[in-house]
Amino acid sequence: MTRLAERKNASDAEAQASMLVGLALAATIIFSWFGIHVATILLIDWKVRNSWFFAPIFIALQTWLSVGLFIVAHDAMHGTLAPKRPMLNLLIGRFCVTIYAGFSYSKLYDSHHTHHRHAGTADDPDFDEKHPTQFWPWYFNFFRHYFGLREMVILTLVIVSYSWALGDRFPVLLVFWALPALLSSVQLFYFGTFRPHRHVSLPFFDNHRARNENFSWLLSLITCFHFGYHHEHHEKPWVPWWKLSSERKASGVE
To answer: In this structure, is residue 167 part of a structural domain?
Structure first.
């Protein structure tokens, strides 16, 4: 076997191992989200005394896992979740954004790749050139861009179906599904779009117009699954979320 063939085999083996890790992490996020969803909405008796003391923990965890659903879908959009398996990326990505809030994977896919081509400019659908330093105006424009009639119809059908199925348990749906979804959209936007791309006194490092956070590994994971290391993502969009921390350390870019 030639050295070139050996290197190719080693590269293929590394890619396969990376894909298995990514899929395992994606499965962990998805099944954890589903587990909490079923437990809080269908199984736990919230009328039991003191049970609501645990509600903030479930809300916070489900908010974080909802961010994770979007990050899994995001890796699918870049083909980094399952390299060279476009159909698998499509199926997992579409599934994640559908259970998250009924979003259109195709629209998210097109908008996100446009964002990468024109980051921080008037042609960037995720950037608000009129409010490049203001969180709430930018967030509301961002939200309106992605949450349209299609999403409203889907969520209305879901809510009506749950209302019929849950009866007097229906309010728990709003607390443990709708609220985490909304909170996670704020979290995603703040740590994954606003902070990396907002205008501050310091200029951007390069034409990616994205900055890194100086977060520890744990804080980076908690805030946005390492997407605070945002320059690394724009510089190397083929790197999956769980490798961004090591890429940031290797590059030394702040």
So the answer is: yes
pTM of the predicted model as reported, rounded to 2 decimal places = 0.91
What is the domain count for the chain?
Answer: 1
Domain membership of residue 91 as a residue range:
9-251
Q: pLDDT by residue (tens digit) across 112-121?
A: 999 999 999 9
Asked if residue 101 lies in contact with residue 147, where contact means CB atoms within 8 angstroms, the answer is yes
Residue 250 DSSP SS3: helix
Are the beta carbons of 219 and 235 closer than 8 angstroms?
A: no
Return the percent helix, strand and coil in the chain, to nearest 5.
Answer: 70, 0, 25
Contact yes or no for 254/212 (Cβ under 8 A): yes
Q: Is residue 3 in some structural domain? A: no
Note the residue count of the chain: 254
Which phi and psi (to 5°) does residue 232 adopt? -60, -40
DSSP letter, residue 123: T
2 within a domain of the structure (yes/no): no
